[in-house]
Write a structure and sequence with these properties.
Structural class: alpha/beta
Bound molecules: adenosine-5'-triphosphate
Largest sheet: 6 strands, mixed
CATH topology of the largest domain: Rossmann fold
Order of helices and strands: EEEHEEEHHHEHEHEEHH
CATH superfamily of the largest domain: P-loop containing nucleotide triphosphate hydrolases
Strand content: 25-35%
Shape: globular
Strand order of the largest sheet: 6-7-8-3-9-10
Helix content: 25-40%
Amino acid sequence: MDKPHEHAIAVDDLVVNRGGKCVLDSVGFTVAAGSVTGLLGPSGSGKTTLLRSIVGVQKITSGTVTVLGTPAGSPALRSKVGYVTQSPSVYGDLTIRQNVRYFAVNYGVSRNAADEAVRAVGLGDIANQMVNSLSGGQQARVSLACALVANPAVLVLDEPTVGLDPVLRRDLWQQFHALAAAGTTLLISSHVMDEAERCERLLLLREGRLLADDAPASLLHATGAPNLEEAFLRLILNQLQPAKS
Ligand SMILES: Nc1ncnc2c1ncn2[C@@H]1O[C@H](COP(=O)(O)OP(=O)(O)OP(=O)(O)O)[C@@H](O)[C@H]1O
């Protein structure tokens, strides 16, 4: 049996340069196993680059990224880490069910598990529809079902709820918490503040630097802000002000 790891993800002094520019600058944090952590930050702040580093598809400049006690990207992590990218990576000329069953076969998982994953993302009623006839939000859910079917220990999701209606967003978040309660570690990027409130812990990235790593309630307390949007604003303004001597 695998040894349990206190930290499902550990990032230490991570630097990533892309196109000659420093995109992540000395980023460090840990993610507890079985937790839901939100990664927030404006467009271009480095969220996707950080998620790519964790799933092991990003060339890093220096530092270390460890997942389940193993260097990110190790072959041993292949079936243990699920990654849902921002643009859906599914086959347009297959139906929803066929897509998810295809992934199920690759992971050695039953057809029933595939059909269950399709239902879990709210697509059970249209499972026989071709993927290229679906909306962008529906295609994103097919991608999510393909990641869920392997039942990974760590699930990395890049903006999984973009374009979804509020009811579906709420349902998916309930599902994320149910997965965490069953032991899955979830790291979810978002730029929607009401989603930040649903996370146990928040990482705030700005211009490649980690500005905050705390629980939502602690961030509100520390900044004295009435909501997380305002808390982040105050953190940014504090960072911009010159230090008092
Ligand atoms: N392939 C690439 N080559 C060079 N620079 C890149 C490349 N991909 C991203 N970048 C740069 O890296 C920085 C961080 O990009 P990244 O996609 O990680 O940000 P993000 O926070 O995920 O943004 P968004 O929310 O818009 O997806 C940006 O300045 C971007 O221009």
